[in-house]
Amino acid sequence: TGIEALTAELRVRYRLPANSGAAFQIRGWIVKRTKRLIQTEATLTSADGKVHARAWASFLCLANTGE
Fold it and tell me: Which of 2, 5, 1 is nearest to 58 (CA)?
């Protein structure tokens, strides 16, 4: 989104091995956003639709975004 932020917390749950050279899709989204904190989630999915990893992160905005 073009917002400068620092990683406050990052958790990753690995569910399946991710082989080198395999094709994966990474999907990330914002779950909640306040003036200074952005909470996000993401998944790493293989071509056959299996989720290999899931992540949760919180970011602290460096500047006020005007919201």
Answer: 5
Greatest Cα pair distance, the chain, in angstroms, is: 42
- The position carrying tokens 């056959």 is 48
Q: What angle do CA 10, 13, 19 make, to 5 degrees?
A: 115
Distance between CA atoms of residues 44 and 25, nearest Å: 6
What beta strand segments (E) does 1-67 contain? 5-14, 24-33, 37-46, 51-61
**Pure H helices in the chain:** none
Overall pTM surpassing 0.90 (yes/no):
no
Task: Report the sign of the C-alpha dihedral through residues 4, 45, 20, 9, in that order.
Answer: positive
Q: What is the pLDDT of residues 31-55, one digit of tens each?
A: 999 989 999 999 999 999 999 999 9
